[in-house]
Each structure stands twice: as C-alpha cells, then as structure tokens.
Amino acid sequence: MASNDDSFQLDIEQSPSRAKSRPQSRGANHATSDSKSKQEAEKSREEALRQELASVKKVNEAIEGVLQSLEKAKANMKVSGRRILRVSGS
Predict the structure, then answer these.
(1) Which pLDDT tens digit goes with each residue over 56-89?
(2) pTM for the whole thing?
(3) Which residue among 4, 17, 41, 69 is the one 20 to 30 A from 85 at the CA level?
(4) Distances in Å between the alpha carbon of 76 and those of 26, 80, 89?
C-alpha cells in the first residue's frame, strides 16, 4: 500500500508541473507573436511619423518660399514708390 501512496503522490506532484509547462510554451509562442506584432506596429508608427515629418517639411518649404516672395514684392514696391516719387517730384 505504501507504494500506491507513493505513486499517487508522484502523479499529483508531476501533474501541475506538466499543466504549467504546456501553457507556458503556448504563452511563450503567444509572447513571441505579441512581441512581433508590437515591433511591426512600432515600425508602422515610425514610418507614418517619417511620412508626416516629410509632409510638414514640404509645407514649411512652401511657406518659406511664399514669405521670400512677399519680402521681394515688398522691397520692389518700396523701390517702385521711390522712383515714382522722384519722377513726379522732379
């Protein structure tokens, strides 16, 4: 009878460890897939941010071009105004 109790005790001790090891292996695969999906999501996010940054840079360049054009127009108007005053004032 002692041997039956011993084998029963071994089965109880081994069962939980087997049960734990199976979900851990599934969990490890799940963790790996989660890790991969997180990495893919991060890469996707970074790429979207790069595209947005490139778009913002293009808009900034366009605005700078408009500002330069306005400054040139302003300077030209001052020069033209002086010429008109000189011609009419002479």
Answers:
(1) 999 999 999 999 999 999 988 887 767 666 666 5
(2) 0.50
(3) 69
(4) 74, 6, 19
